[in-house]
Amino acid sequence: MIDTKQLYKLIWMSRPLMQSAEAAVERGLKGSGLTVRTRAVLEVLQADNEATVPDIAKKLEIKRQYVQLMVNETLAEGLTVKRANPRHKRSTLIALTQKGQTLIEDVVQREMKLVRSIGEGLNAADIETALRVVTTLTENLKTEFGSD
Description:
Layout: H1 4-28, H2 36-48, E1 50-51, H3 53-60, H4 64-76, E2 80-83, E3 93-96, H5 98-118, H6 124-145
Antiparallel strand pairs: 1-3, 2-3
Helix pairs in contact: 2-4, 2-5, 3-4
């Protein structure tokens, strides 16, 4: 039998966790020229090598139109470049430039130092359990209420 009060508290703690994480990311981006949102685009492209705007939107779970604005910012800053998409003439592929690749590598490296610091005292089993619980809750909520 689950303790619904504790589960409820866990779910609602996700909001301050994400707000704190976003604030930490924002502080870490000072001087980089990146915003939290352009950083997110670069991170997806770092992982996937190249992607269309709809692909990025799906990964970030946000609307395509909003991602297009974010991608436009990265293009204007010379962090990304458009490439022809052999599978779709109108949906170009977006890829990191060397400048964008170097920048996101530096940002992620700094963030990993912070993650190591805030993770002190946590053991691997607790982290695995937390990850499994959060993943299951997210999937269950998406199944129950759908996702956009």
